[in-house]
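Morning, I've got a small favour to ask if you have a moment. It would help a lot if you went through both lines with me. Thanks so much in advance, here it is.

***
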Amino acid sequence: MAPDGSRALLLSTAARVRGPLAALVALMVTRALLGLATPTLLAAAVKAALDGDDAVRPVALLGAVVVTSGLLDATTAPLSASAVGRAGAWLQARAVGHLLTFGHRSTLPPGDTTARLVQAAPGTAGLTVTVAGSVISLASSVVALGLLWRIDVWAGLVFTLAIPAVVLVSRRFIGGATAAQAGYLQAQSAIAARLMSALAGARTIRAVGTVDDETDRVLAPLPALAAAGQALWNLQRGTVWQLKLLIPLTQVLVLAVAGFGVASGRTGPADLLAVTGYLALASGALSQIDVLLEVAQVRAGTARLAEILACPGPADGTRHGLPAGPGEVVLREVTVTQDDTPVLDRLDLRLPAGRSVALVGRSGTGKSLVAGLIGRLSDPDSGHVLLDGVPVDELPLTELGRRVTYAFDRPALTGATVREAIAYGRPDLDHADVVEAARAAHADTFIRRMPQGYDTPLEEAPMSGGERQRIGLARALVRPARVYVLDDATSGLDTVTEAEVTEAITTRLHGRTRLIVAHRAATAARCDLVAWLDGGRVAALAPHAQLWRDDRYRAVFAEADTPAHDGQETADV
C-alpha cells in the first residue's frame, strides 16, 4: 500500500476526534510548560534560601506548579483513553462496514482480513495521541536544551554533540523495525487465514484422517513468523544498548561540565539544580525508543489495514426512491469476466413481474453470479440490470436491499436467538409475523422442539443444513420485497419437504417476482418458467415441460437428480 493510503487513513481517524484531541493537546502543552518552569522555580527557591532572601514566593509558586501538574496528569489520562476509544470505534465501524458491502465481490481471505483489522485498529486509533504526546515532548526537550544553553553554554554544547548519534541510531531502528513488523503481521495473518479455512472443514479433515497434514499446513508460516520476531528483537536489542550507553554517558558528561562551572564560578550552585532539571527534560528527546517501536508497529499495521479499505466497494446509488412497479427484472447485454475469461457473455434475461423463474445450468455456468447481479451482490463489467425500468446501480444500497431479498443454500444466521435470526433487519416485526414466516418455511415444528422455542440462543440451537436453510427462507419470507432470489435455498431438504416448502412459498409469494437457482428438475418444474443458462448466455426461457424434450436440457439435471444429492438433509459444513 502506498504511504499516502496509510497517511490518509491516519488523518481521517484523527479528524473524527479532533475536539477531544485539541483539548488533549492543550492540556499536554500546559503540562509541558509547567514542567519547563519547574527547574527555574526550584533554582530560584534554593538561591533565595542560600542568599538569605524571602523564599516564600518562589516556594509557593513551585508548590502551585507541582499540584497543577498532578491535576493535569490526572485529567489527561481519561481524556486520552476517551479519544483513542472513539477513534477506534469509528475506525472499526468503517472497516467492517466497508467489508460487508462487498457481498460476493470480496476476494479477501476472511482469516487474513480479520487478523489485519484486529492487529491494526487499536494502534492506528491511538497513534495520533501518541504522536501528539511525542511531538510535545520533543518540543519541550528542545526548549529545555535552549534553557540549558542559556544557563551553561558548555553544558548545552556537550548535550548537543550527542544528538546526531541518537538520530542516526533511531532512524536505522525505525526503518528496520517497520519492515520486520510488517513481516511478522503478514505471517500472523497467514496462520489465521489457514486456521479459519481448516476449522470450516474440520469434520472433513477428521473424517479422511489428515489432521497432522492440515496442522502442518496451518503452521507452515511459523518459521517466517519466528524469523520476523527474531529480527525485530535483534533490532530492539541493538538499539536499546546503544541508547542506554549513549544517554547516561551524555548526562554524566553534562553534569561534570556543569559541576566544573560551579567550581570555577562560571555558574552558581542553584544553577546546577536547574541544569539537572533541564538535562532530564532534554534527555526525553533521546529516550524515544518505546515510541519509535510503537510507531514502527502501527505503520506496518496501518498500511495493511489501508490495503483493505483501498479495495473499491460498490458505489452507492443517489436516486431517491424507486417508483411503484410490479417487480420486473431485466438483464441487458450483461458481461462478467473472471480471470480474463467471460463467465457471462452479453447475457439477456427478462424476469416477468409476479412470476417464478427457475435458473438452471451446469455447475460453473454462473447461476449464482446472475442471481447476485439483481441485488448488486456483484456488478457486471458491462451491461445493465434494471428493476422496474430503473438501473439498480442508481439506487442506494439500502433501498435496493429492501426491494430485493435473498435466501441462500448455506445462510449465515445472525442474532442472539432463533427469533432474532428470522427477524434480522426487521426489528419492527412482532412474534406473530415471525411464526407465520417460519410456518411457511416449514421451520415452526422443529423450532418449537428447541429448549426455549423461538427464544433459544443460536449457540444452543444446533441445526442441520436443511434446518438452517428453512430459517434462512423464513428470514427472506418475512421481508416485503418486490423480488425474491432463492439461490439454491432448498438444496438441503429432502424431496418431500422441498415440495411442501416450495408450495408454501408459491402461495405466500403469489404475485411476487421470484428467481430460483435450481439444481433439481422437480424444483424447475414447479416454476412458471425456466431460464436455461449455457455458455454464458440464456439458451432458452420457457416452461420446464417444453424444455424437457431437449436431451441437452435433461443432461443438466443428470447429476443433480442422483439419490446422493436428492436424499436426506445434509448438515452444513
